[in-house]
Design brief:
Elements (H helix, E strand, L loop, with lengths): L3 E4 L9 H14 L6 H4 L7 H11 L8 H19 L11 H10 L4 E3 L6 H8 L7 E2 L13 H9 L7 E5 L2 H9 L3 E5 L10 E3 L7 H5 L2
Parallel strand pairs: 1-2, 1-4, 2-3, 4-5, 5-6
Helix pairs in contact: 1-4, 3-4
Bound molecules: 6-O-phosphono-alpha-D-glucopyranose (G6P) and magnesium ion.
Cofactor: Mg(2+)
Keywords: Carbohydrate metabolism, Cytoplasm, Isomerase, Magnesium, Metal-binding, Phosphoprotein
GO cellular component, one term: cytoplasm
Length: about 220
Amino acid sequence: MRKGFIFDLDGVITDTAKYHYVAWKQLADELGITIDLAFNEQLKGISRMDSLERILEYGKKENQYSMEEKEAFAEKKNTHYVTLLQELTPADLLPGVEQFLKEAAEKNIPCGIASASKNAPFILDKLGIKERFSIIVDPNTLAKGKPDPEIFLQAANALSIQPDEAVGFEDAQAGIQAIKSAGMYAVGIETQEALEGADQVVKQLDELSVDALLRV
Ligand code: G6P
Ligand code: MG
């Protein structure tokens, strides 16, 4: 019997990848690096600094900047990204999310957020669903990012459930790996790339039933 649901945010609850892309692309352009949408897929689920490192490697500029410069680049991208996030409203929830969370709340099933994003509380607030989550893991407290299971294990612990009592939801391969390494049931939300290792894959949350997931 499953007792709690743990969600990734970007790509599962709302589609922020397009805003990340606009902000990273502008910064990359300024650094003389051209990125495209296909490259952007690699940045899903990856922390802000790791995303920057991947962009610099892609442009063969990984050894050109000091740590202070890199931090300033990441900060600049984030300021732009947060400006774009101002546009978010509850209409930006992905299909089925609101209904799924409402049903989980009616059945007293606790829900948590396991996202690498430091902007998660702000995004959930803009989407009008922050109160649906009993916990939001603070990525600043993590030693390792996905695919390490740490973030999902911390979420289960904070929800007071065992890992094998949790269902995790993810749109990125690194996230599915993290959920499976944590010993949880993994639901993949499929976009472009196929998600290997997920126990179940859907295109959007309205294909799922809360009751059925509690029995997996
Ligand atoms: C999510 C996104 C990544 C992003 C990361 C950090 O995992 O999928 O693309 O880099 O969050 O987001 P942040 O809002 O902290 O820059
Ligand atoms: Mg994601």
